[in-house]
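Record 1 of the preview.
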Amino acid sequence: MIRFSTAGESHGEALIALISGMPAGVPVDLDFVNHELWRRQQGYGRGGRMKIETDKAHVLSGVRHGKTIGSPIAIEIVNRDWKNWEEKLPVEAGDPGKHQPVASPRPGHADLAGALKFNFPDARYVLERASARESTARVAGGAFAKLLLRHLGIEVASHVIRVGRVELDRTAAWEEIVSVVARDEIVLSCVDAATEARMKEEVEQASRTGDTVGGVFEVVVHGAPAGLGTYANWDERLDGLLAWSVMSLQAVKAVEIGRGITAAESFGSKVHDAIHYATEPTGRPTRFTREQNNAGGIEGGVSNGEDIVVRGYLKPISTLRRPLESVRFDTRAATSASYERSDICVVPAAGVAAEAMVALTVAGLAQQKFGGDSALEMKRNFDGYIEQIRSY
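->
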C-alpha cells in the first residue's frame, strides 16, 4: 500500500514529504521532480514568495543509483526564506520580543478556527501549517507517483478552465493539455490563447483593487485501464477517493467528476454515455468505447477505461491587500484582518498540486490492484490484466 504524508511549516526550515509502499526498481528522474516543483511556483498572479524560493527536491532515503529500492522515500525541500524567520520561529523558546504573532484572524483562512481548536493566543502556528506552501511537499510526492504511473503508461496532467468570470467554453483535447504542461513559460495554463488573455485581464482587475480571484482547474488521467477502484465498499470508490484527495487541497471548496454539475440539471438521456464496441478495419474487435465522457471515466466508483476527469473549484485566496473586517485576538476590538505576503491568483499552481494528489490516489489503487514488490513484477501483473481486458 502506498502511504504519503508531509511535514513542515510555511516559514520553517524545510518541508518534508514521506512516501512508503513504492515498489523497488522505479526509475527516478530528479529533473522531472524538480520541474514539477517549478511548475507549482509559476502562473500569473503569484506573490513575492515565489521570487524568494527556488524549490528543489533533496532525496534523503529510498532511492539509490537512480531507482527506488522499496524502502520509505524521504524528500526535503529547503525554505530559502528560513534565514529571515529563524528568530521569529525558533525551535527553542527564543526571545518573545522577536516573535511575530498574527494579531487578527483573516476571514476565509484557518486562523480563527485553528486558534480556537488548539487554544493558541494568536494565529501564527495555524497559518504556518495551514498555508498552501505545504502543497510543495505534495507535489514532490506526487512526482514520484507519476513516475510509477508512467511505468504503466498512465499520465496525469492539468489545465485551467476558469479564472474568475472568464471560462473556457469548449472541451480540451489531451494533446492540448500535454502542450500546456510542456510550456517553458506558464501564464494561466489555459489551452486557448484568447481565453487565457481574458483570464489575465481578470487577474489584473483583482490586482488593481487589492483583491484576489479564484477559478477552476481540470485534472485528466490518461491511459488508466478499466477496473481501478470498486463499488463494493463506500470508502473504496474511486470517485470518492479522488474527491477527498482534491478537496484536501488548500482553498478547494468543491470537486466535480466528469460533468457532474451539468448532469444535476439535465435529463438522463443527455447525461449517460452510450456504449459501443470499436473494431479495427480488419474487423478484429478492440475495446468498449464511448462517444462522450460525461461520467469522467468513472462509473459506479470504478474506472471505465476512458480518461478520468476531475475538476477542482478554488475559492479566492483569503489574504487580501485591502483586508476585510476582523477582531483582535487580545482585546476583541474591531480591526482589519492581518496581512501576510500572498498571491492574487493561484489556479494554475493549484492544478499542479491537484495532479499530485490525483497521481498519488491512482498510483495507490494501481499498487493495490496489481501488487508487486518490484516495478518489474507490478508491470508484469499490469500487462496480464490489460491482455485479459483485450480478450474479454
